[in-house]
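Risk register update: the risk of archive-format incompatibility is retired. Evidence:
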Amino acid sequence: ILKFLGAISVDLGKDRIKPYLPTILTPLYRELNSNYAEQDPTLKNLSQEIIEFLKKLVGLEAFSLAFSSVQKQANQKRAMRKKQRALQTVANPDIAARRKLKRHKNKAETRKRKIESLRPMYKAKRHRSHTLKDMAMVE
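Archived output:
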């Protein structure tokens, strides 16, 4: 998709790309600012190259205006999700408690995995079955 966006921006040219610039920059910005573990570095490099190309194509001023609007929109979405999560804990405490239990269980599993990787001779105790009931955190 990133290559497609780069090809479209080359094809459209300087004048016709300006209205579509925020739409093109949104996935590029998301890829640059993502911090998940299994991120492909080639995607990050490709998005950086496309951004540099777009800077040269449309000029620094038009690019920075579009990029700042994309940045502002992403920050607003992030703040909205955070606010919704905070409101949900107040409105539905049972769902929040289940989420918290699940997060603590995942943290314990991660800790056990980390200990096993650091000390291969040590085997941490784990639940024997991973049934749907265990994953649902019913009670």
